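Can you give me the bound-state structure? Components:
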Amino acid sequence: MTAEAKQHFSRELLHWYRRGNRDLPWRKSRDPYRIWVSEIMLQQTRVDTVIPYYERFMAKFPSVQALAEAPEPEVLKCWEGLGYYSRARNLQAGARQVMELHQGQVPDDKTAVAALKGVGPYTSGAIMSIAFNRPEPAVDGNVMRVLSRYFALEDDIAKPATRVKIEKLAAELIPEGAAGDFNQALMELGALVCTPKSPSCLPCPVMEHCEARMEGRETELPIKSKAKPPRPEARIGVIIEGSGEHQGKVLVRQRPATGLLAQMWELPHLLVPKELEPLLRFGDEQLTEQAPLGGLLTEAVAGDTGLLIRPQRQLMDADHIFSHIHWKMRVYKADLGAINAEPVGPMAQMAAEAAAVYTAAGKQQAELREPYRWIGPEHMDELAFPNLFLKILRDYWNQDL
DNA sequence: AATTCGGGGCG
DNA sequence: CGCCCAGAATT
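Here's the bound-state model for the whole set.
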């Protein structure tokens, strides 16, 4: 690739971007905090998805200080449905770092920015270039795709080493004094023109010297090795209707502080042992046929809360695919049996055993320990749920199931 | 270097 | 239904 081709790329791409670009909320100012928030939200997330979240987040947490001083659950609630929830916690931790170390001002310093929680190589480059116009590369999936095509690079973009190589190339391409616009131009081209499936080469401002297009290989590049498919997990969950003072409410619980969906709220559910998975194939069979599954739920809830539940029927099946796990969840409806009441129905045996467990443990129905809570539809706005359970609960209440 | 972290949109 | 997306932290 000639030096002329590189100059052509930088010049034409920058002009193309400056002739007209998308009117996005985070482009209305160069406030480093606003850029920072947008870049965190945009990690692995599309622009159209981010926009409403961004508007709400900036209205609620308009400054580094506001975010740093907010209760963490409120931040998580504002992130509800956006995914990769550690981003929200890390962003707030970063805001607190900026308050402690930099007097509330995002530092115009590459090393200091890169040291913020949740800020990696891409995001530090994006903040430094867009907010401060510093000549740092910001290499994301768009940039790797665009440059792989323009320079006909054969490297596997799924490998970490490839990003490092492309960062060096991207740094060389930054026009003097135009780092912010140029980096955004690269991503804008990737998002609008040099798209993954069917790139629009004809209107592309740099098509003239694009190696991949010249060789007719624009749809073959970049090279990307395939990810492992998510491992399937059969799960059973339950909507437990309260009684008495908890009438009209259902039982939810909070997940642990680390790991998958950390600190999010959810319905009680559990992994079905491999040897019991065949039971889940009983489409609309009666619960009697699946007594062992109802028994598992009864035992699990009793062990966790001391509550004796009585599974009633199947409500729905819910599929949810994470990048590495595929949940296939069957959701049951249950109500509560009174303490020391005689269990009835198909679940009698399992329920009786479960009752013995919590009676032996001296647990009381009224003493529901954290992290479990009873909630009704009227305070769904208090707790943060992942989309999977948000949808299940909405369906449940809306359709009066 | 590989795995763990959501969720949605699109051909 | 497979693929991809304005990636970072952890191991």
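A couple of observations. Residues 37 and 397 of chain A are 34 Å apart (CA to CA). Chain A has two domains: 3-214, 231-398.
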